[in-house]
Amino acid sequence: MDASYRRGGGGGGGSAPRSVEDIFKDFRARRNAILRALTHDVEDFYAQCDPEKENLCLYGYANEVWEVALPAEEVPTELPEPALGINFARDGMNRRDWLALVAVHSDSWLVSVAFYYAARLNRNDRKRLFGMMNDLPTVYEVVSGSRQSKERDRSGMDNSSRNKMSSKHTSDVGRVENNVKEADEGYDEDDGDHSETLCGMCGGIYSADEFWIGCDVCERWYHGKCVKITPAKAESIKQYKCPSCSSKRPRQ
């Protein structure tokens, strides 16, 4: 893939998009590319994300072409970079969940690129740009199908919400009082509880039944299977660096 696409410039080496309409056009084209990778071309995309390879990223370009590739080498990069190492979690997760995770990271990247270009726009133009972007379903909504389920549920929720308001208010008062009491009673409990710890790669919740490893640099925790570290291998590691920290080069 030509480097001009990765650096931006709207594809084809042209100038960076500057108007609201041009930035939205760039956003929509990159989004279409990502969607194609995660839907129509999903078998090809899945095959390219080999966990045995180095840290890979999913790029969507302004010519609506997608690419699985290594991150840009230049530091700092000319555009925000997509999530690093999407391939490592592929075989450690349910396929549908893994695709949804890639979709969430892709949505974040698409917004960051758009608002990188929008930095010079005024407040009203940025608001208009976001409104145009927000009118489109997110990549996650398309891949997971949550958009349709939300729309089906909304009508039923609207009808029942009014009836629940009065009873909800009464129950909430009692719930708040109980929560305060429980919080006070549990304040002195073991601070080493990892129940809210999330895997920095797949986002899964900590479980004592699985092997986890912590990065000594960023202090994030990971499933061993997500970063391809076994308990035996961990025994020989004096200082563990996660894939993200390992890929960062020291400033000269």
Automatic annotation (TrEMBL):
Q: Per its UniProt record, what Gene3D superfamilies does this chain match? A: Zinc/RING finger domain, C3HC4 (zinc finger)
Query: Does the entry feature the keyword Zinc, yes or no?
Result: yes
**GO term, biological process aspect, one:** regulation of DNA-templated transcription
What are the Basic and acidic residues biased-composition ranges?
169-184
Protein keywords? Chromatin regulator, Metal-binding, Nucleus, Transcription, Transcription regulation, Zinc, Zinc-finger
Which molecular function GO terms apply here?
histone binding; transcription cis-regulatory region binding; transcription coregulator activity; zinc ion binding
**Which PROSITE patterns does the annotation name?**
ZF_PHD_1 (PS01359), ZF_PHD_2 (PS50016)
Does this entry carry the keyword Zinc-finger? yes
State the compartments where it is located: Nucleus
Check the record and name the Pfam families matching this protein.
Alfin (PF12165), PHD (PF00628)
Q: Which GO terms describe its cellular component?
A: nucleus
* Region annotated Disordered, chain positions: 143-193
Purpose: Histone-binding component that specifically recognizes H3 tails trimethylated on 'Lys-4' (H3K4me3), which mark transcription start sites of virtually all active genes.
PANTHER family according to UniProt:
CPG BINDING PROTEIN, PHD FINGER PROTEIN ALFIN-LIKE 1
Summary of subunit composition and partner proteins: Interacts with H3K4me3 and to a lesser extent with H3K4me2.
Domain remark text:
The PHD-type zinc finger mediates the binding to H3K4me3.
**Protein name from the UniProt record:** PHD finger protein ALFIN-LIKE
Provide the species name. Answer: Leersia perrieri
Give the classification, highest ranks. Eukaryota, Viridiplantae, Streptophyta, Embryophyta, Tracheophyta
